[in-house]
Amino acid sequence: MKFQIGFLGLIISAMLSVACVRDGAARNENAAPVQDVVAAVETDPVNTKGDSADDATLWVHASDPSLSLVIGTDKKSGLAVYDLSGNEIQFVRDGQMNNVDHRDGFPLAGKNVSLVTASNRSNNTIAIYKIDADTRRLENVAAAPVKTIDAYGSCMYKSKAGKFYYIVTSKQGVVEQYELFEDGKGVSAKRVRQFKVGSQLEGCVADDELGYLYVGEEDVGIWKYSAEPDAELLKTKVDTVGPGGNLVADVEGLTIAYESDGKGYLIASSQGNSTFAVYKREGANDYVKSFRIVRGEKIDEVTETDGIHVTTANLGPLFPKGVFIAQDGLDDKGRQNFKLVRWDLIVQ
Ligand code: CA
Ligand code: CA
Ligand code: CA
Ligand code: CA
Ligand code: CA
């Protein structure tokens, strides 16, 4: 990727980095300037006032990608389903859903279905839905409530062996992993591991192909583990909050852009400076760059983002190489919403 900056741009970026240091938001000294992109679509606002929208995932419709769905949390009341133009087409008022994720191909009642899970903070259970591909609606398929630790963030992992997992993180710094299975009445879950990471956690994402789990420790940085529940518990640090790193607390949402041959990108929401850090998916997750979503002609800028999601699937003319979704902490019209950015603006 190319950064075309002239002399004026260099002066501005030098001024910005001075301003950032004064704010205590130190950035990597050798870092490239932050790239600016604009959103193409914003969703309807969430149903609740205040800090309510949090995390999103995107389900790709198998035969007509323009019918794909954005599923976003309203962490005070439930889950919203939006079309690719941002119109809300369903709201499931099932509790304080904090984070959401989904995986395709779960065997249920003799069919392969797309499974959506969310961390329900109302009762610390796993919210489980299937997506009805015909009606494009969520349908509750949880067999019975499964209690977890004090739920906060969550994500899913589908292993190469075809097992499906729900992973939940807590404010107490603990991760739990549950295997999801059909039990006759619907989808149930059994805990397969629990481990302590450190201080407050939230965002997480699993790399299904490479078998890794990334966890955000909000004030500290991003950790990488094996996503396999019986693997040895080793962790490596991908990036650090504060001086020497590219993140400003809190580390919030994490997401993975899949490209072929195990390549692609890991992206993190650096909430404290309203930027997104991009890392290589492969190898040692080298830092690539940071970007932010600035005000466009019709859509306002994105700040203080919690959850993010990316897909590299072709979703039609609006998003030919995929889409990056970010929760916006402050929408210009009032209640919070989600912004959708062409992925090819961020990575060519
Ligand atoms: Ca927030
Ligand atoms: Ca948080
Ligand atoms: Ca959050
Ligand atoms: Ca905004
Ligand atoms: Ca707006």
Oligomer: single chain
List the secondary-structure elements in sequence, H or E: HEEEEEEEEEEEEEEEEEEEEEEEEEH
Low-confidence stretches: 1-27
State Rg: 19 Å
Find the CATH superfamily.
Answer: TolB, C-terminal domain
Describe the model.
It contains 2 helices and 25 strands. By secondary structure, it is mainly beta. It has a single domain (31-346), classed as TolB, C-terminal domain (Neuraminidase, 6 Propeller). A hairpin with a 4-residue loop joins strand 12 and strand 13 (174-182). Helix content is 6%, strand content 47%. A 5-stranded mixed sheet has the order 1-22-21-20-19, with no helix packed on it. It has a 4-stranded antiparallel sheet with strand order 2-25-24-23. The model is unreliable at 1-27 (pLDDT under 50). It is globular and about 55 Å long. One calcium ion binds at residues 202, 218, 250, 252.
Question: What's the short story on this structure?
Answer:
The chain has one domain (31-346): 6 Propeller (Neuraminidase), CATH 2.120.10.30.
What's the topology here?
Elements: H1 7-22, E1 35-38, E2 41-42, E3 53-59, E4 69-74, E5 78-82, E6 88-92, E7 97-108, E8 111-120, E9 125-132, E10 137-140, E11 154-158, E12 164-169, E13 174-182, E14 187-196, E15 201-207, E16 212-217, E17 221-226, E18 236-240, E19 251-258, E20 264-270, E21 275-280, E22 287-294, E23 308-311, E24 323-328, E25 337-342, H2 343-346
Parallel strand pairs: 1-22
Antiparallel strand pairs: 2-25, 3-4, 4-5, 5-6, 7-8, 8-9, 9-10, 11-12, 12-13, 13-14, 15-16, 16-17, 17-18, 19-20, 20-21, 21-22, 23-24, 24-25
Bound molecules: calcium ion (5 copies).
Residues 202, 218, 250, 252 line the site of one calcium ion (CA).
